[in-house]
Amino acid sequence: MNMNIQSLQKNVSNIRNICILAHVDHGKTTLADSLIASNGIISHRQAGKLRYMDSREDEQVRGITMKSSAIALHLSSNGDEYLVNLVDSPGHVDFSSEVSTAVRLCDGALVVVDAVEGVCAQTQVVIQQAWQEGIKPCLVINKIDKLIAELKMTPTEAYYYLQQILQQVNAVSGSLFSSEVMEAAANQESSAARENSEIGEK
Description:
Blueprint: H1 2-8, E1 15-22, H2 28-37, H3 57-62, E2 69-77, E3 80-88, H4 96-105, E4 108-114, H5 121-132, E5 136-142, H6 145-149, H7 155-201
Parallel strand pairs: 1-3, 1-4, 4-5
Antiparallel strand pairs: 2-3
Helix pairs in contact: 5-7
């Protein structure tokens, strides 16, 4: 595995920087553990319990991510091999500067949403940060089992509930797109008015 990663480091076209973004306690670090386990670095039984990316003692004690941390993972897809630099970022609003830095460094983002809690305040913030940096987010709906185990939903109820989460995420993205279009139109009108003013003065 180490030899594969070392050889992939020389092939820049097959290197991807991916960050994990979410509201606090929506399962970013657990998802990171599962991805790390897929590379055989930790066992699948430890995934979600070890919190491998939370290397600081205070993070382990408090049970939250406070500093962004990264790890290189090997990925095979359709016969091609990739080196994925996975960045786990904090979800708590107090550490939002860490999220901003992580987003600027990455090519894409995994946006994790808790199936029970849905889109929360920090979820909207991280989607906006990803949008502003022009990186493509991939939605990951986490803790789906809780819909059955805790909320006692039927499969049909769970389906419509998950559909609402998708609509919430699309609404956030749609509002960002609308704001961008309106801003571009306003800038265009301003430029046109300035040109007309200059022509009139001549």
